[in-house]
Amino acid sequence: MDAGTVMRELEALGKERIKKMYISNGAKEPVFGVATGAMKPLAKKIKVNQELAEQLYATGNYDAMYFAGIIADPKAMTEADFDRWMDGAYFYMLSDNVVSVTLAEADIAQEVADKWIASGEELRMSAGWSCYCWLLGNRKDEEFSTEKLEGMLETVKETIHDAPERAKSAMNNFVYTVAVSYVALHEKAVEIAEEMGPVEMKRDGKKPSILNAFEEIQKQVDRGRIGFKRKYVRC
């Protein structure tokens, strides 16, 4: 299946209501408005195709870029490839839900995510912290350094309130994910979350969001979900 055929298939799946929702969250034209679940039958036909994924991502069409992440081959992508994808990720739904998710299945995930976190750039920081969330929620605890994660928790505590807005959300989610999915640091993450307190995240054209990792962690404690790992990262 070539890129033109895929674009026509995606366009046919678009819904105006979903398109408006994507645009309200920061997507820019061109957008078809395809629900992520509606992409699954098409993804099953194509499976993994990195060349096609690159062609679709390069279109700048939000739905095509999202679909590119589903059919990409993360292990075939280099650091330069991921950086190029980040260059095209113009809002958080691409940086955090496409690029960081794809990176999370690559062997170089932590190495690249660390550089993005240190970049000082809002969406790269957001993608880096988000990548760790996807990693922690899927990979075995033995694949991580407890000392490193503990240091990252301290960094969040010290910098989150002054961080770029989208990075605040990803950093808050990092503390939550460590508490839920990395058992060795559950207590430490709970302590950090309590010390952080509520975090205000400003949003363009919308009321600020109040993030509270401590409250969200307690909900998972009450549900007995500490230690949760998801089977897959990408849908």
TrEMBL record:
This is DNA alkylation repair protein. It comes from the Bacteria. InterPro entries: ARM-type_fold (IPR016024), DNA_alkylation (IPR014825). CDD domains: AlkD_like (cd06561).
